[in-house]
Structures are given as structure tokens and as C-alpha cells.
Amino acid sequence: MYFQKGFGLKSEVGPLLARTYQSAVVERLKSIGYEASAGGLHFKLAKEFGFCYGVDRAVDYAYQTRRQFPDRRVFLSGEIIHNPDVNDRIQAMGIRILADARDPAERFKDVASGDVVILPAFGVSVPELEHLKAKNCVLVDTTCGSVLNVWKKVNFHARDGYTVIIHGKHHHEETRATASQALTHKGGQYLCVRDLAETELVCDYIRGRLPAAALMSRFRDAASEEFTPERDLQRIGLANQTTMLMSETLKVQETLRRAMVDRYGEADLDSRFRAFDTICSATQERQDAVLEMLSAGGLDLMIVIGGYNSSNTQALAKMCGPRLQTYHIDSPGCIETTGIRHRQIGAATDTLTSGWLGHGDVRIGITAGASTPDSVVGEVIERVLALQGLTAAELTAPAPFAQGSSTSAKATADKQSYAS
Length: 420
Ligand code: SF4
Known about the structure:
The chain is α/β, with parallel strands linked by helices. Helices cover 42% and strands 17% of the residues. The longest helix has 19 residues, at 246-264.
């Protein structure tokens, strides 16, 4: 059995989802113009943040699935989305999240015929899907429509003999699932580039400045098993993980386009190079909203909320980091009485920063990745308020955000950061 459209139980699980994932504090801030103040704390919410349509749907289906199959074992083929709070709640309903493993037989070794398996918003690879179908599981597929759109583009490239270059993290579930689509075509190959630096290496090879062996020593884990640079970098088609930074994706495209022109000439470009921007609209809207906030100015610091393994949250933090003091946190518990526990871009461990609120007025920008529920955002605001003995009931609307910085929060925090 294969379900893709839920079980018609939306009205039954809706009230529970609203109670669990919505926030009165966030609703209030939205209703008074996304800005509010209490004491010396001034908050400004991004105009778009938090749960996207794909995550909304995936979480809804997971709750519907539990209700539809109360007596069956229910598994998730991996984290439904990259948010610790949501994953904890789903596990508390008795849905088991399976550990990651490259081999489908290993990943699904505890799953038996008749068990229910929920496929996450970022999809699963072709071999994983085939494995589960062969096992005769009940499949509840929550793969987001925007991910399916990327797969369509990848199939289009691979079918026509273009090697698929994916701007994405090769170990991320979505990119692994996307890459597997390329292999469904005869001779299909793929290569994943994580960022501009990796793209430049591929371009060095295309221009004849880097030997094939050197390229492959870097990309062995990020390319299809039979990938052969001499053969597979003559015609390339680009796609990207849906949650990458749009500005970087455009640079990756242009950088590869120029390398192909240098190697093969402009006249031959159409038959050797194709590019589609497959950033999803929800990711784009959240990035645009952050850009708008940064351009408006007047913020002293930014809190970016979302799982540390959430690609779209990392992209938001990457945008803010160079512009102002940014704290990427994954849960309200990161707001501690002794400081803020956060993850710096690219770091594997947390940093605890004390003195981060500085003294006097502080203007705090807040955004959250597409897998972060409003309930988490609201709780973060409440915990920040509590540090100064304030509550959400004291938030008033809307304090104007003046240009420039008013506190020493950034300087103080810079001095007091240390790894925990
Ligand atoms: S971030 Fe985009 S692709 Fe991912 S689930 Fe949300 S809408 Fe879908």
C-alpha cells in the first residue's frame, strides 16, 4: 500500500497540531507588525520564517498516520525534518526514527512486512524505496512537491545524457535521494558540489588545470561510483538541493558555465551545459525576508533558530553572520541563564557566549528555518525575556527600530565567547 495524500484525518489532528506547534506569542507579534518591545528588549521577526508548506504537510501526515494505524508499528525512514523538538514529539507518539545507513538492508533491518514506514519531506533514494516496496510495507510518502520538481529536472538531464551536477551536501538525505534519480538512466552519473570552492576545483579540471586523480581524491564520496571525469564532465546539467543559499547557487551556475565556455567555446554551450535553479519558493521567501531585515538595519544581533543539521537554517545563518552578531540555536534550551549556547557556521560543537545581551537597549532580529515550529520561536522569545525578569505579557507594539547599533552587545559577546 502506498499513500501520498494523507488519510482525510486533517480535521481530527488539526487541533492537536495547532496546540503543539503554534504560539500565542508569535501570533501576537505578527498581529502588531512583527515588532514588539518589553523593557530594553526589542524584537523584530522576519516576515517569513518557520514551517514551510512541505514541512507542514509532512508533520500533518505523520500525525494522521499514527491515528490511522493505532495498532501497527510505525517507522520513519529518518528524521521527518531536521528539528529536534518535532522529532522528539513524533517519537513520543511511538513512531520510531530509523538510524541513517547507506545500505537500505541495514537501514530497514528492523522493518517487517505490513509495518508502516513514513518517508520524509526530503524523500528517500530509489534503492530505499524499492527495498521498502519489496518488503511489502505500508508506505506513507510525504516527499515535498518542490523536491519532486528537482527530481524531474535531474531525470531530464540524465535522460538526455548530461551528467548531473548537484549544488548540495552529498551526505544530506535530500541530495542523496536526488542523486539516485540520475542513476535510473543508462549511463547516468552525478557529482555534488557543496560550495563555490568545490565548484572551482571542478572548473580547474574542466579547464585542464587539475588532473582527474586529484579531482577524484576530493570528490570520491560526492560522485556516482562509476564517475569518470574524462567522460562525465563533457556535458553537464545543474540542479540544486532545495534549501541552499540562492546567491551561492547562482554563482555556482555561472562559474561552471564560464568554465564550459572556456573549454568548449560559446557556440557549443547549449549542447554541453544546462542549468535549473531548483531552490524551493519557501526557502527563497525566508532568505528574501532576512535580506530585507538586514537591509533595513537597526539590529544589534540576530537569533537564527533551527536544527544544526538543517540546511536551510544554515543558509539563513550564513547570510546574517557576515553582517551582524548571529547566534544559530537549535532550541529554547540554548537560552541559558549563563549565556547563549549556539553553533558557529561549520563548527561541530556548541559555543557558550555570556554577556550576549549587553547592557541597555538591545534590538534582536529573529528568524527560523523551514523546519522550526512557531512554538519553538515563541519559547525562545519568552526565555530571552525571562533573562531580564520580563514576560510576553509585557510586550508592547511596535517600538521603532532606529538605524545603527545602540548597545555594546556585539563587542561584549565577542570578548566572552568560548567553546563548550
Ligand atoms: S524547504 Fe522547500 S523543499 Fe523542503 S520541505 Fe520545505 S517547501 Fe519542501
